Queue: 2 jobs
Job 1
Amino acid sequence: MATAPASCEHRRRMGSPSGTRTKATAARIGNREEAVRWARSLLSEGDFMVLDSETTGLGTPIDFVEVGVLSSRGEVLFDSPIKPSCPIEPGASRVHGRTAESLVGERRFFELYPDLLEALWGKRVVVYNAPYDRRVWDAAVGRLGARAALAGGLPPWECAMRAFAAYVGERSKRGGHKNQKLVGGDHTALGDARATLRLIERMAQGV
């Protein structure tokens, strides 16, 4: 995971949401009270998943090297390393420890795509730094061509980073709220997903 733009716009590309938007999303959060209500609505409805990933870096081309998905109760629904379709940037390897050598023999995204769809289908998907992860997803799904088109769309991805920025309330020099680092993550997809789930629970408690 890496620092991403403040905007949490959801692209309607292949593999992007195609149905009706969820009525309460992190993109509409403007202050602490709204962040608390958003987090509480997630936990009360209980129909969301937390996704996190590690990637090849910030440049283009870009791909996943690891993806983890948790249920709203913290159950592991998906956790797998992924052999990327492009080189891993040295800076990214220093963060998450994944290298081309360590991923030899792992499956590629197209082999794991059906399992990911099964985990995410019909659910609200919450991601810390959603615009960045969405960009990687769009790139990976776009490489699948007709196979992805046949699968249809996914639910909206909601940005927990944007919600937490509003919750903290620190103003950015560029306007709006300053993005905050994810506390408690360990630079693994599953570890960072767990940290995001704990953060949602913290916001719901208002502490």
Job 2
Amino acid sequence: MLFTQCEHRRAPIDLRQCAALMKFLAISGSLRAASINSSLLRVAAHLAPDGLAIDLFAGLGRLPLFNPDLEAQLPAAVLELHGAVAAADALMIASPEYAHGVSGSMKNALDWLVSFEPFVGKHVAVINTSPRARHADAALRETLRTMSAVIVEEASISLPLLGANLGAAALAGDPRIATAIRAALRALRDAVEAARPPEEPTFPVP
């Protein structure tokens, strides 16, 4: 299930405009209800500027353990992940660190995307909610690079939030955090726009 910003914007919007919006998919590697990683991504969806929609992927816990034998007939949860990734212009990924590595749920999701062609070349912002989690951050980046993702460094931020016990409302209300998130969103949006091929000129038909 996706939380779609188009359906929950702060002001009314014509849903027909959603197709024209730039779309980011936010994926949290934590399944905890009170996860700081998930909260930060919700804040990003709340702070997204006009013209940008952020969907929060909520199906990580439903993904089966990666098994190549299932690739011939993909489970519904994997198809949901694939569809969300394919529809996104860019990804925002935030994962906690467990035993000097990314979470098992995050690695499992990435394993299901290894042979998924629409992932190749996808722009990604890597969000780190604890500067001490350098091992997971490095491991996540290595995996993404191996999968041919494009990590946008200007959009990849590290914030000292571990142990802060802040909910989404408190995070959004912190000027320092809100400023960093807005800057990351702009950088990711600019990277996607810069990579798009120029539009072909149109000429009036006589």
